[in-house]
Every structure is written in C-alpha cells, then in structure tokens.
C-alpha cells in the first residue's frame, strides 16, 4: 500500500489526478478524484496580524497573518493590500514570491515588504522609495473574498491600522532585557521583557530556558504579549532551585529585521525557514527558595 500525505491541505471542490507508473513499460495508469467539502462549519477568519503594535518602524520588514483555518494558496498578493491615509492603494509594497510563505498547517502566512525598497543604497530604494514613511498612517487590508482551503470565502474583511515611526537600524541587545525569576517550588512564569517589539514567530522558537546543571531545555508553555515586548514561560513542573539560562538564537529579529548579530542593512535576505539557529547568546538567572 502506498500512502501519500500532502504537504499542504487539499482544497475542497478541487479535482486531482493520480499517475502511477509501475516500471514495467506497460504505461502509466491514471485516476482522478475530487475532494468533497465534508466540513459544514463556519468559514475562516483572520485571527491576528503580527506585529500587533500600533506604531511600526519606517523600515518594518514583514507581517504574519494568522488564520483560524487552513487557507487556499495563490491569492495572497491579490487579497492583501496596503492603503495610505486617504484610502489609496500603495503600489507593490510587498515582495511577491512565486511560492507563498505558509507554515505547514496553512494557517500562517508571512508577507515581506520588498527588502530592495527598504534597504538604503539599492536601486529600487532610490527609484521607487520606501513602502511606508515616518509620520504617516496606513491600513493593511485582508479581503473577505479570499477563499479558505475548503473553497469558502472569509467571514469578513480584516483591517490593521498603524502609524509609522522612525527607522530602526540598531540590533536588539540582550543587556537591555529584564528577567523576572519565579520562586522555587512554584509554577509561576518566568518573565522576560524587552524595550522594543520583537519578531513574534522567532520569539516562539528561538528563546528557551535551560537549567545550568543539566544544559537541557525545560518543557513548558510560552506566551508572548504586550505587543511582543514580553515573553513568558510557564514550566510543566514546579521550578527546582538553582541557576538557569535564557538561551536565545542570535538570528532573533526586531521588527526591522535587525538581529542580535547584525543590523539588517548589512544582512542578506533569506527565507526565515532556511536560516540556521545554531548560535546562541544567554542571560543568567537564579531560582531561589
């Protein structure tokens, strides 16, 4: 028996063709099938757009769009628009990739501003200008006509309004972070606060807690709030007394793409999924009786 598991959900109502060649030279056999829509539940909605802050830097790098259910592909750049203060659509603000950047579940889409327009010294930056400007306001719009993976349009439009502040060209520094340690024997959260909003998706996978004596990461629940300026870790088991580290991958970014390693201005554009998080920095803290 041969089992095929698609990387992304099959779309309801879509027709698919299966081609099988057994290698005997007798020719390929084909079958077609259609995916029925067995789910009669409500259509998807946009649950959140990150960053959640109301003021973003002029060199903002990307948005994360979170949906309540898997979405169809190929519609992102025709269904997501950026409007200026007068409701006029901004021309080509985003980097339109042939392969849209979805997570495995098909529920989170990453959309980048065109880095060539964001970075100073590049021809698109000089000719077309930056997509968003300091001192102005914008609205990111997701159209309700966008179909989810079952072929149903979104329940409603979604809008994120934001103002633009000065460009941020300084890398985040761990020395500016504030760590509030819990008490031994409790399951109170460890709290780490930052002076600026950081990348929501990267915070979820590049920050972890390690016990100094064992150098093994603790298991627990991570929550990120206060416009991505606070990271909270609640352990699965009560805290033993001892020394710990907050271990952070150095490719962690702020909203402008500056990492702990270097400013975005001297970085190269890479897909988030392809970057290696093997290098870390640490903050020490102690859990006391």
CATH topology of the largest domain: Immunoglobulin-like
Count the domains: 2
Note poorly predicted spans: 267-277
Percent strand: 25-35%
The H-and-E topology, N to C, reads as EEEEEHEEEHHEEEEHEEEEE
Radius of gyration: 23 Å
| The CATH class of the largest domain | Mainly Beta
How many beta strands in the DSSP annotation?
A: 17
Shape: globular
Name of the CATH architecture of the largest domain? Sandwich
**Relative helix content:** under 10%
Distance between the ends:
58 Å
What structural class is derived from the secondary structure elements? mainly beta
Major sheet: order of its strands? Answer: 3-5-8-7
Could you characterize what this model shows?
The relative contact order is 0.16. A hairpin with a 5-residue loop joins strand 7 (101-102) and strand 8. The protein has helices at 76-79, 115-118, 123-128, 200-206, and strands at residues 15-20, 29-34, 46-50, 55-57, 62-67, 80-83, 101-102, 108-112, 137-142, 158-165, 178-180, 190-193, 207-211, 220-225, 230-235, 242-249, 280-287. Helices cover 7% and strands 31% of the residues. It has 2 domains: 46-165, Immunoglobulin-like, CATH 2.60.40; 174-287, Sandwich (Immunoglobulin-like). The protein has a 4-stranded antiparallel sheet with strand order 3-5-8-7, with no helix packed on it. A 4-stranded mixed sheet has the order 4-10-9-6. With 289 residues, the protein is mainly β. The chain starts with 14 loop residues before the first strand and ends with a strand. The radius of gyration is 23 Å and the shape is globular.
């Amino acid at each position: 028996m041969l089992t095929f598991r698609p990387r992304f959900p099959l779309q309801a109502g879509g027709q698919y063709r299966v081609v099988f060649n057994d290698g005997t030279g007798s020719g390929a056999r084909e079958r077609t099938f259609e995916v029925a829509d067995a789910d009669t539940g409500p259509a998807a909605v946009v649950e959140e757009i990150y960053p959640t802050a109301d003021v973003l830097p002029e060199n903002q790098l990307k948005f994360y769009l979170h949906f309540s259910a898997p979405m169809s592909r190929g519609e992102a750049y025709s269904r997501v628009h950026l409007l200026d203060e007068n409701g006029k659509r901004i021309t080509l603000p985003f980097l339109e990739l042939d392969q849209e950047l979805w997570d495995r579940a098909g529920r989170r889409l990453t959309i980048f501003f065109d880095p060539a327009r964001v970075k100073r010294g590049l021809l698109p930056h000089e000719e077309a200008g930056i997509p968003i400007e300091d001192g102005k306001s914008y609205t990111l719009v997701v159209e309700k006509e966008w179909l989810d993976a079952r072929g149903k349009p979104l329940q409603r439009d979604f809008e994120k309004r934001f103002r633009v502040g000065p460009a941020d060209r300084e890398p985040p520094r761990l020395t500016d972070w504030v760590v509030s340690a819990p008490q031994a024997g409790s399951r109170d959260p460890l709290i780490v606060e930052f002076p600026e909003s950081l990348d929501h998706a990267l915070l979820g996978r590049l920050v972890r807690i390690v016990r100094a004596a064992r150098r093994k990461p603790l298991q627990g629940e991570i929550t990120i709030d206060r416009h991505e300026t606070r990271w909270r870790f609640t352990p699965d088991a009560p805290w033993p007394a001892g020394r710990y580290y907050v271990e952070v991958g150095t490719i962690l970014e702020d909203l402008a793409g500056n990492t702990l390693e270097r400013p975005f201005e001297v970085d190269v554009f890479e897909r988030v999924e392809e970057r290696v998080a093997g290098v870390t920095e640490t903050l020490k803290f102690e859990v006391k009786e």
